[in-house]
Write a structure and sequence with these properties.
Residues 1-23 form the signal peptide. Keywords: Signal. This protein has one domain. The chain contains 5 helices and 3 strands. The chain has helices spanning 3-13, 17-23, 30-42, 50-60, 64-76; strands at residues 46-47, 80-82, 89-91. The relative contact order is 0.26.
Length: 98
């Protein structure tokens, strides 16, 4: 599952994903969110295609369950804004702040 698919799931299940992450014993840290901020910023702040999504996923170094939890948390906090129903998103914090 690429980060685009994770973001799409986050959009439609934002209320449920934190509970799922908690049930799996995943606690998202500030360091993990900083990592996602850095790799998405390095990719140009917007993830809108599979190539970029795969590059961001690889650069994060996270397992998919952790990446899903981090992206979900950032969607919930309003740091990641979804651009369409396909999962494209833009980071709106850190170096990518509007």
């Amino acid at each position: 599952m690429t980060i685009l698919k994770i973001a799409r799931l986050a959009a439609f299940g934002a209320a449920l994903l934190p509970a799922v992450a908690q049930a799996q014993g995943i606690t998202v840290t500030t360091v993990e969110m900083d990592t996602v901020r850095q790799v998405v910023a390095a990719a140009g702040c917007t993830v809108a295609d599979e190539d970029t999504a795969m590059a961001v996923e690889a650069a994060s170094g996270f397992e998919r369950t952790l990446l899903a939890a981090v992206v979900s948390e950032m969607v919930e906090r309003g740091e990641i804004v979804l651009l369409d129903q396909e999962g494209a998103f833009r980071l709106t914090s850190g170096d990518c702040a509007n």
